[in-house]
# Entry
Amino acid sequence: MKMSSFFPILIFCMILFFTSPCYSDPDQLQDFCVADLNATTTSLNGDFFFSGFTKEGNTNNNFGLAITPGNVLSFPGLNTLGLSMNRVDYAPGGVNPLHSHPRATEAGVIIKGKVLVGFISTTNVLYSKVLKAGEMFVIPKGLVHFQKNVGRGKAVTITSFNSQLPGAAVLPATIFVSNPAIPNDILAKNFQVNETVITSIKSKFGSS
Ligand code: GLV
Ligand code: MN
# Structure
Protein backbone atom coordinates (compact mmCIF):
# COMPACT_ATOMS: atom_id res chain seq x y z
CA MET A 1 0.00 0.00 0.00
CA LYS A 2 1.25 3.50 -0.86
CA MET A 3 2.01 5.83 2.07
CA SER A 4 -0.43 8.43 0.63
CA SER A 5 -3.40 6.04 0.83
CA PHE A 6 -2.32 4.62 4.20
CA PHE A 7 -2.54 7.97 6.07
CA PRO A 8 -6.26 8.70 5.58
CA ILE A 9 -7.05 5.15 6.79
CA LEU A 10 -4.83 5.63 9.84
CA ILE A 11 -6.47 8.97 10.68
CA PHE A 12 -9.94 7.40 10.29
CA CYS A 13 -9.02 4.50 12.61
CA MET A 14 -7.62 6.90 15.21
CA ILE A 15 -10.80 9.03 15.14
CA LEU A 16 -12.90 5.87 15.53
CA PHE A 17 -10.73 4.64 18.40
CA PHE A 18 -10.79 7.88 20.37
CA THR A 19 -14.45 8.73 19.85
CA SER A 20 -16.16 5.31 20.04
CA PRO A 21 -16.42 5.22 23.88
CA CYS A 22 -18.50 8.43 23.57
CA TYR A 23 -21.07 7.39 21.00
CA SER A 24 -24.11 7.32 23.27
CA ASP A 25 -25.48 9.15 26.28
CA PRO A 26 -25.92 7.24 29.52
CA ASP A 27 -29.49 6.27 30.41
CA GLN A 28 -31.41 9.19 31.82
CA LEU A 29 -31.87 9.26 35.59
CA GLN A 30 -35.09 11.26 35.71
CA ASP A 31 -37.78 12.57 33.35
CA PHE A 32 -35.84 15.78 32.79
CA CYS A 33 -32.96 17.67 34.38
CA VAL A 34 -32.65 21.38 33.70
CA ALA A 35 -28.97 22.29 34.04
CA ASP A 36 -27.92 24.74 36.74
CA LEU A 37 -25.46 26.74 34.67
CA ASN A 38 -24.42 28.83 37.69
CA ALA A 39 -23.45 25.85 39.86
CA THR A 40 -19.78 26.01 40.82
CA THR A 41 -19.48 22.87 42.94
CA THR A 42 -20.60 19.24 42.86
CA SER A 43 -22.31 18.05 46.05
CA LEU A 44 -21.43 14.67 47.53
CA ASN A 45 -23.89 12.42 49.36
CA GLY A 46 -22.70 10.57 52.41
CA ASP A 47 -25.65 8.56 53.67
CA PHE A 48 -25.12 4.88 52.85
CA PHE A 49 -27.61 3.25 55.24
CA PHE A 50 -31.41 3.24 55.06
CA SER A 51 -33.88 1.80 57.57
CA GLY A 52 -37.06 2.69 55.66
CA PHE A 53 -37.93 -0.98 55.03
CA THR A 54 -38.08 -1.98 58.70
CA LYS A 55 -41.70 -0.83 59.10
CA GLU A 56 -44.82 -2.27 57.48
CA GLY A 57 -46.49 0.25 55.13
CA ASN A 58 -50.08 1.37 55.68
CA THR A 59 -52.27 -0.57 53.22
CA ASN A 60 -55.51 1.04 54.39
CA ASN A 61 -56.44 2.47 50.95
CA ASN A 62 -58.51 1.51 47.90
CA PHE A 63 -55.73 -0.62 46.40
CA GLY A 64 -54.76 -2.34 49.69
CA LEU A 65 -51.18 -1.38 48.88
CA ALA A 66 -48.22 0.45 50.40
CA ILE A 67 -45.03 1.16 48.48
CA THR A 68 -42.01 2.31 50.48
CA PRO A 69 -39.39 3.51 48.00
CA GLY A 70 -35.69 3.20 48.70
CA ASN A 71 -34.62 5.41 45.79
CA VAL A 72 -32.26 8.35 45.53
CA LEU A 73 -34.94 10.71 46.89
CA SER A 74 -35.39 8.78 50.16
CA PHE A 75 -31.86 7.29 50.26
CA PRO A 76 -29.43 9.85 48.80
CA GLY A 77 -26.44 7.51 49.16
CA LEU A 78 -27.70 5.77 46.00
CA ASN A 79 -26.89 8.82 43.90
CA THR A 80 -25.07 7.83 40.67
CA LEU A 81 -24.93 4.14 41.69
CA GLY A 82 -27.60 3.02 39.23
CA LEU A 83 -29.88 1.00 41.49
CA SER A 84 -32.72 1.25 44.01
CA MET A 85 -35.30 -0.90 45.82
CA ASN A 86 -38.92 -0.83 47.06
CA ARG A 87 -40.67 -2.51 49.95
CA VAL A 88 -44.23 -3.34 48.86
CA ASP A 89 -46.90 -4.33 51.41
CA TYR A 90 -50.21 -5.84 50.32
CA ALA A 91 -53.39 -6.30 52.35
CA PRO A 92 -55.25 -9.56 51.55
CA GLY A 93 -56.58 -9.02 48.01
CA GLY A 94 -54.38 -5.91 47.63
CA VAL A 95 -53.33 -4.91 44.12
CA ASN A 96 -50.33 -3.01 42.80
CA PRO A 97 -52.12 -1.43 39.82
CA LEU A 98 -50.93 -1.63 36.21
CA HIS A 99 -47.78 0.44 35.91
CA SER A 100 -44.44 0.62 34.13
CA HIS A 101 -40.97 1.90 35.02
CA PRO A 102 -39.63 3.99 32.13
CA ARG A 103 -36.03 3.91 33.31
CA ALA A 104 -35.48 0.43 34.79
CA THR A 105 -35.85 -3.32 34.69
CA GLU A 106 -37.38 -4.62 37.92
CA ALA A 107 -36.42 -7.78 39.81
CA GLY A 108 -38.38 -8.80 42.88
CA VAL A 109 -38.60 -11.46 45.55
CA ILE A 110 -41.64 -12.50 47.57
CA ILE A 111 -40.80 -12.15 51.26
CA LYS A 112 -44.19 -13.15 52.64
CA GLY A 113 -47.50 -14.49 51.26
CA LYS A 114 -48.66 -15.54 47.81
CA VAL A 115 -48.52 -13.00 44.99
CA LEU A 116 -49.77 -13.13 41.40
CA VAL A 117 -47.19 -11.29 39.29
CA GLY A 118 -47.79 -10.42 35.64
CA PHE A 119 -46.41 -8.31 32.83
CA ILE A 120 -47.58 -7.71 29.28
CA SER A 121 -45.14 -7.72 26.36
CA THR A 122 -45.29 -5.18 23.53
CA THR A 123 -46.95 -7.92 21.47
CA ASN A 124 -49.69 -8.07 24.14
CA VAL A 125 -48.71 -11.44 25.54
CA LEU A 126 -49.42 -11.70 29.29
CA TYR A 127 -46.78 -13.54 31.30
CA SER A 128 -48.03 -14.27 34.82
CA LYS A 129 -47.50 -16.66 37.71
CA VAL A 130 -48.46 -17.05 41.37
CA LEU A 131 -45.28 -16.93 43.48
CA LYS A 132 -44.67 -17.77 47.14
CA ALA A 133 -42.08 -16.62 49.69
CA GLY A 134 -38.54 -16.98 48.41
CA GLU A 135 -39.51 -17.00 44.73
CA MET A 136 -38.34 -14.30 42.36
CA PHE A 137 -39.56 -12.48 39.25
CA VAL A 138 -38.26 -10.03 36.70
CA ILE A 139 -40.11 -7.34 34.74
CA PRO A 140 -38.31 -6.14 31.59
CA LYS A 141 -37.69 -2.39 31.40
CA GLY A 142 -40.70 -0.30 30.51
CA LEU A 143 -43.26 -3.12 30.31
CA VAL A 144 -46.66 -2.74 31.96
CA HIS A 145 -47.05 -5.02 35.00
CA PHE A 146 -49.10 -5.66 38.13
CA GLN A 147 -49.12 -7.70 41.32
CA LYS A 148 -51.97 -9.03 43.45
CA ASN A 149 -51.91 -10.63 46.87
CA VAL A 150 -53.80 -13.87 46.26
CA GLY A 151 -53.05 -15.44 49.66
CA ARG A 152 -55.18 -15.43 52.81
CA GLY A 153 -52.93 -13.10 54.85
CA LYS A 154 -50.75 -10.07 54.19
CA ALA A 155 -48.00 -10.20 51.56
CA VAL A 156 -44.65 -8.42 51.25
CA THR A 157 -42.28 -8.13 48.29
CA ILE A 158 -38.91 -6.44 47.89
CA THR A 159 -38.29 -5.13 44.41
CA SER A 160 -35.06 -3.79 42.93
CA PHE A 161 -34.33 -1.62 39.91
CA ASN A 162 -31.29 -0.86 37.78
CA SER A 163 -31.87 2.87 38.22
CA GLN A 164 -31.51 5.19 41.19
CA LEU A 165 -34.90 6.65 40.23
CA PRO A 166 -36.85 4.17 38.04
CA GLY A 167 -40.01 6.30 37.83
CA ALA A 168 -43.47 4.75 37.67
CA ALA A 169 -46.24 5.52 35.20
CA VAL A 170 -49.27 4.18 37.09
CA LEU A 171 -51.84 3.66 34.36
CA PRO A 172 -55.09 4.47 36.23
CA ALA A 173 -53.54 7.74 37.45
CA THR A 174 -51.77 8.52 34.17
CA ILE A 175 -54.99 8.06 32.23
CA PHE A 176 -57.65 9.38 34.57
CA VAL A 177 -55.93 11.80 36.96
CA SER A 178 -53.45 13.72 34.80
CA ASN A 179 -53.11 17.46 35.28
CA PRO A 180 -54.41 19.03 33.09
CA ALA A 181 -56.89 16.23 32.43
CA ILE A 182 -56.90 14.26 29.18
CA PRO A 183 -60.10 15.42 27.41
CA ASN A 184 -63.00 13.00 27.93
CA ASP A 185 -63.67 12.64 24.19
CA ILE A 186 -60.12 11.40 23.66
CA LEU A 187 -60.45 8.85 26.45
CA ALA A 188 -63.89 7.80 25.17
CA LYS A 189 -62.44 7.16 21.70
CA ASN A 190 -59.44 5.31 23.16
CA PHE A 191 -61.59 2.94 25.18
CA GLN A 192 -64.47 2.84 22.67
CA VAL A 193 -67.05 3.85 25.28
CA ASN A 194 -69.46 6.67 25.88
CA GLU A 195 -68.09 9.78 27.64
CA THR A 196 -70.37 9.10 30.64
CA VAL A 197 -68.31 5.97 31.33
CA ILE A 198 -65.20 8.13 31.40
CA THR A 199 -66.70 10.71 33.77
CA SER A 200 -67.87 7.88 36.00
CA ILE A 201 -64.36 6.36 36.17
CA LYS A 202 -62.78 9.79 36.73
CA SER A 203 -65.16 10.45 39.61
CA LYS A 204 -63.83 7.33 41.38
CA PHE A 205 -60.44 9.06 41.44
CA GLY A 206 -61.89 12.42 42.55
CA SER A 207 -61.27 13.82 39.07
CA SER A 208 -63.67 15.20 36.43
C1 GLV B 1 -43.52 -3.42 41.93
O1 GLV B 1 -43.95 -3.62 40.80
C2 GLV B 1 -42.76 -2.25 42.24
O2 GLV B 1 -42.70 -1.40 41.33
O3 GLV B 1 -42.20 -2.14 43.34
MN1 MN C 1 -43.11 -2.21 39.34
